[in-house]
Amino acid sequence: MLILNHTIAGDACTIYFPERRSELAGFRDFLAQGDKVLGLDTETTGLGIYEDGFECRLVQIGNGREAWVLRVDLFADVICEALRQNRHFVVHNAAFDLQVIDRTLGVKIEELADRVFDTKIFAHLLDPRMKSEGGAGLRLKELSEIYVDDTAPDTEEGLSSIFSKLYADWKKTVSKETVDAHVRKSGKRPHVSYGFANIKIDHELYVRYAGLDVILVTRLFYELAPTIKDLGLNPLSKFEHHLQGLLCVMQRKGMKLDVAYIHQLRLDLQKEHEDYALVAKRYGVENINSTDQVADALLGMGETLTEKTDGGKWKVDKAVLSTLADLDREWERIEARDPNPLADAVMRAKRASKWQTSYVDAFLDYRDPDDRLHASINGLQARTARMSVSRPPLQQLPSGDFKIRRAVVADPGHVMISSDYDQIELRVLAALADVKAMKHAIETGVDLHGYTAELVYGPNYTKFHRKLMKGTGFGKVYGGGAETLARQTGAPMDGVKHAIAEYDRVYPEIKRYSKKLQSRAEFGKKEVITVSGRHLPLDRDRLYSATNYVIQSTARDILAQAIVDLFDAGLGDYLLLPIHDELLAQAPADVADEVAAEIGRIMSGMFYGVPLSSTGEVTGRNWGAAYGADPMAGIW
DNA sequence: ACTTTCACG
DNA sequence: ACGTACGTGAAAGTG
User: What pTM, to 2 d.p., does this model score?
Assistant: First the structure.
């Protein structure tokens, strides 16, 4: 047995790495000590839990002084037995380990999730900011440095040089295609993922860091848990832990891909990219993704550029290019000028390549052997607690064109269901700020922006008046001003200023509410507290964002509660993905209408005197079906 | 590592 | 005093 000593915060700690079953007696004694909470962690071959070839190599169990690093290939039964004991564990980022253990060891999420504390959830509730934003950060390393031992090693970075060498050696022995495929799947630091899969399982540093992580996470738990309690955050913490378990179940289920369709789409996008890149090349742009080249070529053609980026370079984003290409937001001709063919080609080539690399290739890279996608759902990500989805980013698939979403299909015999909240952010604002007239309009079920336009411009208001009021409402939610609104709507500055003033006149409570939040933050702690008790830190020079933070965060909590409610109602098995104000689901075709109606019903309800509404709709065989003509209509 | 761009709510 | 658009994930270029 390998036994390693390490000092953490002045305390002598021991890491045990048994290599045969006869050496497990000490582990059984350790378990029998009866620690109320044990640290838990896993070491795996990578991040793609459901992808081909994924393995869990080590499971570490320990407390603040002692860690047992257990080889899964030798001791899976002993590990499972320990995990099934009726006791609590503490994990950093439990969503990952819960699914690893479920998939590779068979201890299900449902068995373990409610007995797990997650220090990442604790840390987010105490300060949701990343280190780069001035917060404590959310990584184990960053938190350990602050709360446990400021000399705690960065376990991943410590292994990085070893991984680099392993990776370099491996690259010499395999084809370029193999390396390229690995780079694509593993992201920015391919050597790291290569190393985690291939470092010798008894490498001393690997074993040491594996053990240290559970000692650190246990100590972190004992530092953070009392603070959570003292701040009255126990109920919120309990809610977030429960939600996380449900989101893990959603992720484990995943969603089916239409791979034949994806391959064809990939070829189409590749051709589109190549064709338009060739056009751009004729105007001297070798690389359509180089903003410098594009700007130079456009200036060389005699175009005038007006906007600069923060870095002082010519801005050539989609807004700039579309004006030159004489295209509106829907890519239709405006007929305001002769379209610049380079601007047009760059826009189209960039769109095709982005769609291919970010979505279509990612679908193929991240799928499991059954062609299902298990995108990673982070239930508690943004400063406002909004959820995020990555690998691939399913919350960001193009919405104006069905092409990409069409690749995601319901299971055989099932159809897709979507249910989104109607104007949830504006309704949350009406509720929290107690905006009398707005609440009245929402209650009576009239078109809210039309109602506002009528209040301001009278019964003969125009479509543009309505658009302006809708935009002003957005401005209120985001904390924007006249200039931005003018840019967004294309309305003249004085009209916009008048619109905002009128908005404040008919809904005076909004301004009062924003002022109240800001002045509280100005004279007290630089934070706002939501009705769920969540503390949201503010940047001292951006106190105006207080209103937006409260609204966005509250809307998120409402969606989170809906997920819990849907699981409680027995509908969890139908759910596929949260998308901020929407839930994507699927159900067998013969019951889909009922399931959709029930989802909509459960998502709807009163919030501080304001009705929230959502209608579940059956959209079709695939996710794209609701967005446009379904080319496969009738085939299923 | 940082910047720019683009996809979403 | 004034006004400030909010929150993400990811690819790719640049230095």
Answer: 0.96
